[in-house]
Amino acid sequence: MNLQPLIDAPLAVHVHVATVVPAIALGAWLILLSRKGAPGHRMIGAVYLVLMTVTCGAALRIHSTNPSGPFGLSFIHLFVPLTLFGIVRALLAVRRHDVRAHRSAMLGVFVGGILIAGAFAFTPGRIMYRMLFGS
């Protein structure tokens, strides 16, 4: 593993990684291990949603993959509005005490915003790929 590509990356990438890494761990804990509805679940869930929101904001400022694209965005940026939509949907559902809709939205945020988008972050040419496999 070579951390140099991450060290050399723009600030937006540093913020993105610094927020998504704990979000991965917290999201997995919330889904797999926490007691749903307990105070700890609600508190960690709030932290998770803030981390994911900041992650989305940072992602919109990462343009290194497709600088000549529209606004410097690439297809992976499509996960930003989908993730933000899931966050809003989850918050609205929890306020309505709609557990099923909340669960569905949160699973969507984790699977789409972390697992699928994260998998694309490890494709050739991206910073995470260069960190693990070299250039």
Structure description:
- There is one protein chain.
- The protein has 135 residues and is an all-alpha fold.
- The chain is built from six helices and no strands.
- α2 packs antiparallel against α3, α2 packs across α5 and α4 runs antiparallel to α5.
Query: Beta fraction of the residues?
Result: under 5%
Distance between the termini: 11 Å
- Please describe the biggest sheet, giving its number of strands, its sense, and whether it closes into a barrel: none
Please mark out the parts with pLDDT under 50 across 5 or more consecutive residues, or reply none. Answer: none
Task: Calculate the mean pLDDT score and round it.
Answer: 92
* Oligomeric state of the chains in view: single chain
Radius of gyration: 16 Å
SSE class: mainly alpha
The run of helices and strands is HHHHHH
Overall number of strands: 0
Summary, kept brief:
With 135 residues, the chain is mainly α.
Question: Main traits of this protein?
Answer:
135 residues; mainly alpha; 6 helices; globular
Helix-strand blueprint:
Elements: H1 4-7, H2 11-32, H3 39-59, H4 79-95, H5 99-121, H6 127-133
Helix pairs in contact: 2-3, 2-5, 3-4, 4-5
